[in-house]
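Folds abound. A case:
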Amino acid sequence: MEGGNTGSKHSVTLNNGVSMPLLGLGTFRLRGQENLIRAVDAALACGYRSFDTASVYRNEGDLGCALQQLLPKYGLTRSDIFITSKLSPADLGEGTREACLRSISELGCEYLDLYLIHWPGKQGWRSDDARNVDARAVSWRAMEDLYEAGLIKAIGVSNYTDKHLTADVFLPCSTCCAASGIPPTSSTKGTPGLVQEKWGSPPGLFLFGLWGVAW
């Protein structure tokens, strides 16, 4: 797990100083306010303090409502929890800023602890379409601006392969973390059918698997 220093057995400190819990509740395929309330209630009772969602999960609003309703029950406030959301492939590129602001609004909070590019290609484009390279770069710059504005505490990528990590996205203009422009986090894709044996990831990158995601 490069790029992070384990601050305790329950969290890791990213390379920009943000503390990220190592255990979190993934909400993929979890829909409906009642279902979210039950899941979040059980998670908080068990000590979970990190919650992962995404625009494409279509549950950000319900998750936000559940958290607002349940945090007082456990004597918690927004600053006690860690919320991750992700940029939809449909918004990769020029739509990044507005997409992030929508996620923040849906969740009913003032900032995200972590925002990820959900997929390295734009919806409707082939994976080998050269335009994806520029779209990823545009998204990354927009996320840096959101970080600088205090709307995101940390930024990263999701479902990237070694090729994506080394090819284009980590630009020297990055300001959110290390001077070399390395993002704090990368959520990687690994399944029994996709074993990524070589990770030539830049130093300073913290690799982790998303919580509660099925193959």
